[in-house]
Amino acid sequence: MAQETLNVKGMSCEHCIKAVKSSVGDLSGVSAVDVDLKKGTVFVDYDETKTEHGDIVEAIDDQGYDVVS
């Protein structure tokens, strides 16, 4: 299992949390998603043999938020 904490810009409310958790959580191999609005982070626990970093970034981008390095 892999774990990543991504910095994400544009999240500000409960809707943002639900949108990110839903889109990332629907990816194959993702076992946990935690969003921290105050820190602007998304923590993801996933099986890297089923989902790649780029898939997670794309899922977040598709919801209208920006993953920053």
Automatic annotation (TrEMBL):
Keywords: Chaperone, Copper, Cytoplasm, Metal-binding. Residues 2-68 form the HMA domain. One of its GO terms (molecular function) is copper ion binding. InterPro entries: CopZ (IPR049740), Cu-bd (IPR000428), Heavy-metal-associated_CS (IPR017969), HMA_Cu_ion-bd (IPR006122), HMA_dom (IPR006121), HMA_dom_sf (IPR036163). Its main location: cytoplasm. GO terms for biological process: copper ion transport. It holds the Pfam family HMA. One of its GO terms (cellular component) is cytoplasm. It is found in: Cytoplasm. The keyword Cytoplasm applies. This is Copper chaperone CopZ. It comes from Sinobaca qinghaiensis.
